[in-house]
Amino acid sequence: MKKKFIVFGKPYSNQEEIEEVVKTLKSGWWGTGPKTELFEKKFAAYAKAKYAVAVSSCTAGLHLALLSLGIKQGDEVITTPLTFVATANVIIHCGATPVFVDVDRQTGLINVEEIEKKITKKTKAIMPVHLYGRPCDMDKIKALAKKYKLFVIEDAAHAIESVYEQKKVGSIGDITVFSFYVTKNMTTGEGGMITTNNKKLAERMRILSLHGLSRDAYKRYSTRLFSLYECLMPGFKYNMTDLQSSLGLHQLKRIKKNASIRKKQWNKYDQLFTDNDSIEIPYLEDPNTYHARHLYTVLIKNKSLRNTVIQQLLDHGVGTGVHFMPVHLHGFYRKTYGYKKSDFPNTEYIGSRTISLPLGPSYTMDEIKYVGKTLTNILKNIKPSSFRT
Ligand SMILES: *Cc1c(COP(=O)(O)O)cnc(C)c1O
Predict the structure, then answer these.
(1) What is the structure's pLDDT at 21?
(2) For the chain, which terminus, N or C, has the lower number of CB atoms within 10 Å?
(3) In the annotation, is 168 catalytic?
(4) Contact 114, 143 (CB under 8 A)
């Protein structure tokens, strides 16, 4: 029997989401409204943050975070090149310059010891990325931010469940942004959530997320009192709809249960790959953190085999991901900032060897075992003549 193709990052949903979406469709209110308000409230409580603002994507949220902190032309923002391009792109959207700090070779997280060397008079913020679900060293990052009066904006696209030193990610930095893109630990199709404990920032981001209007659409249309609204600043169209929030409400409810599935699958991969010396398996937890296990990434030690392995996995019906191709090596970044190979050796080490395997509640344990065994067999039989670069 031919096996079904295993799509990488397949979203998980069940009947509750479907019913909620249908209810919303029938309610006559599809835009930003009561369900989004409720989703924000529930998410803020989950993230242990005072305020949450739902947005159309994590990218949109990161953009608003930078703008609300006044980051503009001539400023610099520190982040890592081992991330999705969106993290750096949004800095450029504000007219500012992304300044990269290489990652730690083992964890893939920003090398905190290197940050200080990159701080200049123009530096305004640090944007750590909680890569693959592991929280960055926030104590050290916050101490640096305090010393140099910088803001901390966390890219928590991978880190919905992550906890750092008993503190939930979402409650630590000045602003944290989560992603609900289809492949993430919970999804609304497209969507994101900003959290902060600062009321002024929350209000500013909320206004900016809907054209810069003084009241949001729901409040404009639902009250029976007529009221005009005005544009306070030229904002964006970055709001989340109630159709998306209908998905989010139920995805959030199941996040704990799904985390336990991720944990079992993660351990199964670990078990299937012990004693395999052609790959490096992901390094897991520090004692005082909770890793959200967003991505199970293996490093192919012989990097010239990586692309062949990915192709052979595809040939065997297994889709995988690459997280990430280093940002500084993308055409725009090379051309604009003059980056070249060997500028960030640890990022490049990981970026040229990494493969992310399917993980999460949409996969059965049999599928996980199939992926693990298929990878093991490919590595055992791979021939140098089949190299692709
Ligand atoms: C997915 C992702 C983003 C962007 O999220 P969207 O919701 O798709 O905008 C940003 N940063 C990282 C690290 C990501 O993986």
Answers:
(1) 97
(2) N
(3) no
(4) no
Task: Report the length, in residues, of the chain.
Answer: 389
123 lines ligand 1 (CB under 6 A): no
CB neighbours (10 Å) of residue 140? 14
Per-residue confidence band for 214, with pLDDT thresholds at 50, 70 and 90: confident
**Ligand 1 centroid, distance to 164 Cα (angstroms):** 20
Q: Is the Cβ atom of 84 under 6 angstroms away from ligand 1?
A: yes
Strands 175-179 and 151-155: parallel
Pocket test for ligand 1, best of 181, 190, 297, 322 (most atoms within 8 A of CB): 181
Where b means 16+ CB within 10 Å and e means fewer, 153-186 reads: bbbbbbbbbbbbeebbbbbbbbbbbbbbbebbbb
| DSSP strands (E only) in 226-293 | 279-280, 289-290
Residue whose C-alpha is closest to residue 61's, from 86, 24, 29: 86
Exposed/middle/buried for residue 117 (C-beta within 10 Å: 0-12, 13-18, 19+): exposed
pLDDT at 318 over 60: yes
- Is residue 57 within 6 Å of ligand 1 at its C-beta? yes
Closest protein CA for atom 6 of ligand 1: 58
187 lines ligand 1 (CB under 6 A): no
pLDDT, mean of residues 259-269: 98
More confident residue, 389 or 244: 244
Predicted confidence band of residue 385 (pLDDT cuts 50, 70, 90): low
The residue whose two tokens read 């060997």 is 342
Burial 19-32 (b: 16+ CB within 10 A, else e): ebbeebeeeebeeb
Hey, is 202 helix, strand or coil? helix
pTM of the model: 0.96
181 lines ligand 1 (CB under 6 A): yes
CA 157 to centroid of ligand 1, rounded, Å: 5
Catalytic residue among 35, 124, 168, 184: 184
Taking the CA of residue 59 as reference, the ligand 1 atom at the shortest distance is 9
* Token pair recorded at residue 354: 């990494």
Express each pLDDT in 276-307 by its tens digit.
999 999 987 788 899 999 999 999 999 999 99
